[in-house]
């Protein structure tokens, strides 16, 4: 486990205890990210990962510009994915496989439903990303913001909620991918072109092209991390070739 992940785990544990002990009662807000970073002596990037973990565990709710509000004293027992994916490549591959369907569908819906405001938001993020391709921390935040903005453009809040639920895992994957890309000449530019292709398909209102571009981007991202994703095309061909569904009877 990396030092950053260890710090994230330590701070998350302490805040979980604080919430459980009633130091931060249900309905109240946590201190700002800046104040928490000062308290624990960590970066605001670590605090962002911590709050994403607490949100995934059902302890807090966060809205942009509104801070983090405590919603429960004990962790939710519902669906979870691992919080430290770097320790298990099979889990990371599985999350990428999930993202292929989730974000492929998200991009397709965004292409069908995007508004002028959605396009302007995506364009602004892409411009900032282009200016920060070789600034790792900024690039990670903007990369994630781009995918979240696509989810917002679906105008289906549950795409946004599910993507935010996976935000810690996605952040770890993006951070790993961005760090790796800096070791290879011009790779960040290649990644940016993949984002641009998704944006152009959404702008054109072409759901099929948007889904294909998003899926291709994620497949390439997984390949750059040497992750093995099952051959989905072969799977689909098998199904279309007459495989009997177990639910057909």
UniProtKB/TrEMBL annotation:
Recorded GO MF terms: DNA binding; DNA-binding transcription factor activity
Alphabetical UniProt keywords: DNA-binding, Transcription, Transcription regulation
The keyword DNA-binding belongs to this UniProt entry's keyword annotation: yes
Domain HTH gntR-type, first and last residues per copy: 5-73
Pfam family name, one: GntR
The protein's name in its UniProt record: GntR family transcriptional regulator
Organism the protein comes from: Caballeronia sordidicola
């Amino acid at each position: 486990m990396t030092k950053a992940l260890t710090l994230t785990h330590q701070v998350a544990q302490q805040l979980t205890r604080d919430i459980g002990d009633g130091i931060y009662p249900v309905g109240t807000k946590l201190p700002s990210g800046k104040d928490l970073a000062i308290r624990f002596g960590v970066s605001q990037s670590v605090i962002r990962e911590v709050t994403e973990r607490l949100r995934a565990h059902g302890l807090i709710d966060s809205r942009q510009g509104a801070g983090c509000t405590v919603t429960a004293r004990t962790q939710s027992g519902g669906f979870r994915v691992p919080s430290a994916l770097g320790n298990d490549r099979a889990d990371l591959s599985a999350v990428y496989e999930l993202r292929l369907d989730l974000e492929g569908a998200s991009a397709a819906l965004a292409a069908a439903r995007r508004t002028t405001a959605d396009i302007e938001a995506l364009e602004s993020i892409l411009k900032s990303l282009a200016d920060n391709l070789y600034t790792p921390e900024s690039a990670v935040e903007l990369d994630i913001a781009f995918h979240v903005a696509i989810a917002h453009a679906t105008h289906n809040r549950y795409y946004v909620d599910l993507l935010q639920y996976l935000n810690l895992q996605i952040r770890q994957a993006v951070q790993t991918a961005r760090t790796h890309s800096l070791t290879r000449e011009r790779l960040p530019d290649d990644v940016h072109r993949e984002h641009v292709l998704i944006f152009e398909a959404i702008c054109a209102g072409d759901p099929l092209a948007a889904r294909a571009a998003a899926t291709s981007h994620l497949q390439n991202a997984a390949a750059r991390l040497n992750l093995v994703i099952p051959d989905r095309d072969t799977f689909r061909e098998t199904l279309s070739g007459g495989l009997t569904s177990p639910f057909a009877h």
